[in-house]
Design goal:
- The structure is a single chain.
- A seven-stranded mixed β-sheet has the order 2-1-8-5-10-4-3, with helices on one face. A three-stranded antiparallel β-sheet has the order 7-6-9, with no helix packed on it. A two-stranded antiparallel sheet has the order 11-12.
- It is built from four helices and twelve strands, in the order E-E-H-H-H-H-E-E-E-E-E-E-E-E-E-E.
- By secondary structure, it is α+β, with helices and mostly antiparallel strands.
- The chain is globular and about 55 Å long.
- The chain has one domain: Jelly Rolls (Sandwich), CATH 2.60.120.10.
Length: about 200
Amino acid sequence: MKALDWIVADGLCETRPSAREWDLIEEHYYLHRFLTEVIDLLAQVRNEADEWDHLPQLRRLVRKLITNSYYVRTQRLEPCPKTGSSVLTLYDEIGYPLTVQNVTFAPGIVSPIHNHGTWGITAVLKGQEKHTFWRRSGDPDYPNKLEWIGQKVVAPGEVVSFTPDAIHCVEAISDEPTLTFQIYGDTQPQSRFFFERDTHTAKPF
């Protein structure tokens, strides 16, 4: 497994320092401890819009979780025969501000072009994903017109973080289903979209 960290901002995918696995090993590090540490970290942020400034610390916590938690690395649903994907929510309750889930994609499945309306982190556990990145072109007549920026293949052990403005789609490129752990901040529905490249439009996610 690779141990690489990435950040996607304004369409650019750039590498970031990654914690060494042996520095993260901790006995009895369970999912509930990870969630508590994430919430405690975010509680230090005065402005919710600034949460993504803590992506380096959040990536480290995600890497610590997948290093130590056999439970998280193995929880999965089989891909839905109709959609080719499945989402297993790992924790939720009324008012809980985070989305925490394991997502499975069947080989060859491609997501729509989308953003998340918040910060997010994905850790690949099995298989490989190809991420394609866009950004708004700045066309005054078509504010949701996109320009292609680049692509990145993400392998097991790699952790990718996204700022709220990141726009991408994901393709499962392995012969086996792709399994990822994903965590997202408090999504603002009015800021989350599907993008249509042919019509230069965006629709609510």
